[in-house]
Amino acid sequence: MPETLDAALTDEAVLATYRRMFAALARDSGAVVDDPALVDIAETLFDAFAEAGEEWLTHEQMRYACRAHPTDRFENRLRVLRGLGAIREVFPKPNQLRYRASFTSVVGLMFIRRMMDDGGQSEMHRLLALEDLNVADPRTTMEEARQSAGNLARAFRLWALELITLTNGTIEELREQAPKLWGTEEIARRAQSLHGTILRRWPALDRTCTELRAAIYAYSDASRRAAGRLADSAGTTRNLTLLPAETWRTFAQTAPKERLAAVLDGFVFDAPAPWHDPAAIATAVDEAPRPAPVRPAPPRSPLPDSGPVESAGDGVAGLDRLAAVAESALAGRTAVPLEEVLTGDWASMRRVLADLASADLRPELPYRLRWSDGLRADPAGHPSWSSDGTLERVTTDG
Amino acid sequence: MAEPEPTAAPEHARARAHGPLALRLAEPAPPGFLRLSHGDETVVALPAWPDGATPSVLDEYGVAPVPVERSGETRRVLAACLRVCWTDLSAEPWPGVPAEISDVLACYRALTGRGDDMTRSWALGALRRLADTGWILRSGDVVRLGPRCATWPQESHAVLRELVRRLPGPHPADRRPDGHPDGPAGAPATLPLQESGPGEPAGDRPPGAARDETSPDLDGLLSAYDERRRAELVAAFMAVEHAAEPVHEARFAALRDPALRRTLAEMLARRGRTLIQRRDTWTSGYDDTVAARLTGGPGGKAGLAEGERAVLTLVLVHSVAIPRADGLLPEDTWLSPYPVAVEELRRRTLLPIGELESALRALRQAGLLTQVKAVSEEAPGGYVPGPQFHRLTAAARRRLQEELILAAGPQTPLAAAIRARRA
Q1: Residue to substitute from B85, B127, B322, interface A, most A β-carbons within 10 A
Q2: Is the N or the C terminus of chain B less surrounded, counting Cβ atoms within 10 Å?
Q3: Alpha-carbon dihedral sign for residues A194, A198, A199, A204
C-alpha cells in the first residue's frame, strides 16, 4: 500500500501510462494491472532470468527471486505472464520444471519505461528519422509514403489535441505532463523536412502533405501555448525547473564566453564603491601589524668582563696571539720538546697545550706538533705522565 | 512643494553603476551631485548624500555596510597615500598634490615595518582596488587623491589630520624639524608638514581645483518634515542604498511608517532607484525603466567586462539554476546556499583560466560574488551570487531567468514562449 499521498499519486501516474499504452490492445478496461507492484514482479523476474543465463529458472527459483512479494500475488502474476507467453517452459512437455523469458516482453518493458520518462519524445525522434530514411529509399512506393504521412499527421494531431486540453486544464497537471508532450523545435524541423521530401518525390501527394503540414503547425502552436501558459503561471520561481539540470550543465560546459556574457547584457549592477570612514582608516593604521621588535640582548653580569674579545677568534689578532704563544715556547729554536714547555700548574699547562694544538691546526701558521709513540711516566713528578711530542717551526720556503 | 525640483535620475543611476561621472570642462553637474574639478582636464561628479550624511551612519543603526575587501590593508595604503599627497594640513585633504608611487610604498613600508616582496605586492593590490573605486587616481607612477576623498565631511578632517601627523614619512631621514614623527596630538591644526611633494610646492590647491555642490535634489522632499523625521528619512535612505543586505523595517521608522516610506520611495526615485521589499526587510535597486535606458544607451555594457559577465552567468547557473532544477531552491531569489567550486569553473568551462581569476576578483570586490569558505569535505567552498542580487527588482529577477532560459535552451518551447511574449 502506498504510504503517502505523493506516493499514491506517483503510482496512479504510472498506471495511467500503462493503461494508455495498452489501450489499443486491451479487451476490456479491466485488462490492465491496477497495482504498480505487479509490474515490479515482472521486472524482478526478467532480471532474475537475465542473471540465470542458460540454466533458466525453476519455479522455486522464480519464487525466491520474488520473495519480497506475497505468494498469492506472485502466483497470480506468473499465471498471467505464462498465459500471455512472456514466460514459457524451456521444453513444451508436461511436468516441465524449467522456464525461460520472452525477449519480446523484455524489450516491451524497456520501451514502457522509456515512454514513461519522456512521454514518447525520443520515440517520435526515432520514428521521424526512420520515416525519413524510408521515403528516401528508392524502393518505397507512393502508397507507402501516403500511409507514412497519414500516420504522422494523425500522431501530431492527437499530440496537439492532448496539449491543448492540458493547456486549458489545471496548471498542476500542465506542469506535470506538458514537458513530456511538447515538442522541441528539432521535432518540428524533422517533420517538416520529411514533409518536404515526400512532396518533392510525389507531388501528387500534396493533399496528404497539406494535412501533415497543418498537423505539424498545430502541434508547434500547441507546444508554444502550453509553454507560454506555464511560463506565465510559473512566475519567477518555477520556470527554471522546466529545463532539466542536464541542460544547464551542458550550457555551462560548452557555451563560449560571448554567449555566457550575453545573458547579463541588459542588466545594471553597482560599481564597487566601498566607504572608507576616517575613523576606520585611523583604526586600520592602529591595528597595523607592528614591525617585529628588536630582540633584547640577554642579561649581562654586572661585573667587569672583557668579554669574548680576547678569546681565540678567527681574526688576525687571534692568529697573532697563537704565533706569540708558539714563539715564546720555542724561544728562538726551531723545535722544542713539549715536556719543556708544559710546566707549571694544570691550568696553565692545559691552556698552553690547547693554544699549541690550535696553532698546529692553522695551516697559515708555521707551527706543527709532532707526536711519537713513546710515553714517559713519572709517578712522583708533575705531570705524572706525558706523551713524547715536539713543537717545530716549519719553514715554508725551505 | 511649490515647484518641482530638477532631478537627474538617469545620471545618478549611471554614477552608481559606472562610478563617478566624467564631465567636460565647462559642463555643469546635474542636481544632487558634487562637482570636482582638478584644475586640469579632469572634471568628475559624484552623487551627494542628503544632509551631509555618509555611509558611516549605518554604524549607528548596527547595520553592516558593504564589506571592503582586505579592509585593513586597503585603508592603511589609503593612509599612506594621504600622508604623501596631503601636504598642506591647513587645507582639506582633497585634492592634495600628486606623489610618486614609490613614496606611497615607502610610507606603507615604514608604517608596517615590513619591506618584503609580499607586503609590497599586497600594497600594490590595495592601490589597484583604491584606484578602481575612485579613492585615488593613478597614472603611471604618480598617484593623486581620488574624487571620493572629497566626500569626507569637514568635521571628520580632524581625525585624518591627526592620523597623518603621526604617520612616518616615506624617507626616514626626512623627519619634521622637531624630529618627532609621532608629534603631539595637540599640535595646532594649521601646522603644515615641512616636506613638500616631489615637484609641487606645498600649500594651496592646484589652480582651478574646485569642489562645488550642485542644488540639492532631495531637499524639497525633506523640508516638509521636522528634524527628527528628516533624520529618520536620511538614515533609511542611506541604509537601503548602502547596507550590504536588506535592512529590517523594525530598525528604521521611515521604513515602518507608510507615509514616510512613500517619501523615501520618492527620494529614491529621484536617484533612479526603487524600494525592494522582501518580507519585513527592504533594500533599493535600479528602477526598471531607468535601468533599461541605461543599458540601451551608448556604453550600456560598460559596467562589467565580458569575461566578468561570463563568470557571473556561470555562477548563477551552477548555484541557482541547477539547484532550482533539482527542486532544492524554491524561493524567488538569486541568492543561494549552494556554492560552485572554483575547480568546476576552471576545468569544465571554456573560459581562459587567467581571465577567470581576475574576473572572480573584480566580481568579489563589487559584491556580485561571495566567496564561501570550505567547512568540510561535504561542504566544499566556492562562490555564490553576492549581496548585489538582493537589489534586483521582481521584473529584473524574472528577466534574468528568461535570459538564462533563452541562452541555455534556445530550442525549447519555453524559449519560444518567452520570445513570443516579448515580440
Answers
A1: B322
A2: C
A3: negative
